[in-house]
Amino acid sequence: MVCSAKMSLLCAPATGAALSSALFLRRRREVIPSSTITVLPVTPSAFVRINPSRLRRRPIAAAFGGPVLQDACATALVVGGAYALVSTFDNLTRRNIIEQNLSRKLVHILSGLLFLASWPIFSTSAGARYFASLVPSLNCLRLVLNGLSFTTDEGLTKSVSRLGKPEELLKGPLYYVLVLILCAILFWRESPVGMISLAMMCGGDVVGIADIMGRRFGSVKIPYNPEKSLAGSISMFLFGFLVSIGMLYYFVALGYIQLEWVPTVERVALVAFVATLVESLPNRIVDDNISVPLASMVTSFLVFGY
What we know:
This protein is an all-alpha fold.
């Protein structure tokens, strides 16, 4: 009996502790449902060693994988296209398929319009316009080097000059690429001013459509300038107007600008009229590659306001 009492006394604390632990665990289960507890298995693959140098290189790689890479690829693509355009017409001229004068006019018309049409392939970053301006800048460098006879490129000289002389590259063709650079940097895709200016210079300039139509069908001369024909001026107005409207529609459709078409058509017609009038003046001082886009820029800025 004594032993039984002693055993009961010795076991009582242990039994009480066990009951207290069981009661505690029961209350814990009631407070925290078992469905909310998730045990994740620990595997060796969960422990990954991270190289700090790789983390430092990620922002640079991400930057070059975004707008910079897109603009660099777009620049290379447009440069290659411009070179292919000039080479194609140079080969056509060498094979006597087309005349040199016609080849020069077509290069003048197409190169600027294709450059303008390539703007959407560049990114939306602030530096995209500068990447795009590299294309005419490289052509500008080629013209200067060949015009000063530091290098010799007969194909380039024949494709863009009237008489095939290197010094001609420093006049009209050089002014032409400078206008391309100016429109890309100043106006870009946010303003119709640059689009209309390039369209008038390329599609309706005297060395383009107006010259072709004027020489073939221009029997009636302008009274204040016998060197210019009425057919050439009318052709410049029509083609410059149509190309300008087409380019504006192109950028509107891609969402870069928003225009109301009825007043836009009236404004573009006014710009085309002013540019045609300036081109028809008996001016031997200022090249048409400067006067026509400059008149288009000023008029477009006044009528569009941006």
